[in-house]
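Field: sequence (string)
Field: structure_tokens (string)

Example rows 1 and 2, in order.
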Amino acid sequence: MDIGTIEPTIDSREIRRRRAGITSGSGPNGGSGRNGSGGDDGSDNRSPFELIPNKAKVFTTFLLVVVLMTFGGLSAAYIVTATNKAIEWRPFDLPIQVWISTIISLSAALFIIAVS
């Protein structure tokens, strides 16, 4: 090794296998590689089976839960208000700003769909 250079201690293929959860039949030094029983390759003590969450999947799942909870809450509020005889459900007119922002949002979504 030359002075001022850095050599990786873990092969990039090993990192990809760890992230994807793919394991080979043998560890780095001939061990089985299961549950940390493989040989010591000088790297950290993480097992290849350790869960490394995908940030995009976690964010998407969180966003889906937020949307579902909002939809459920609004649906429940509508059902309670619509079936309650004491409180009368009165429709109201939406302001023009709501219609303008809706048109802008829909046109932007259609533009993105058309471009991709």
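Row 2 begins here:
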Amino acid sequence: MKLYKLLLLVFLIQSISLNIYGQKSKEEQIRKMEQLQVQSLLEQDSMIIQNILASDLLVNAPTNTVFDMKTVMKAFRMGYINYSSYEQQIDTIQIIDNIGIVMGLEIMKPAGLTANVGKTVKRRFTDVWMYKNKQWQMIARQATNISIE
């Protein structure tokens, strides 16, 4: 099963990332990467998450704390980044050379050890993607809670 997931991951990243001048626009590629991120979070798939996040990733979390890639992956594996539902509404995508900036709204229901379990959390987010090493990788993320119900 892990081999299947690895092959699927390689195929998805190549099909999304290597068509930079092909049929798919950069914006469509970024949308696919955002979808892959959401799916991976819901499925708690650390292998895919680790492959779409850049090794030099920085995250400004809703807790007003800045985390690096190592800390994010540790929190993910321990269950501190876990959602029973996660919906993303993209407001805009801006492409500047090999940088993609995504802004929008997220609505999620935390699970596991994540804060606010059982509640609905709405937050504004900004994701920054960079095309490097022949694929799009998230290099920065910022999220701010706007309501917890």
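free_text_note (row 2): The first strand starts at residue 53 and ends at 60.
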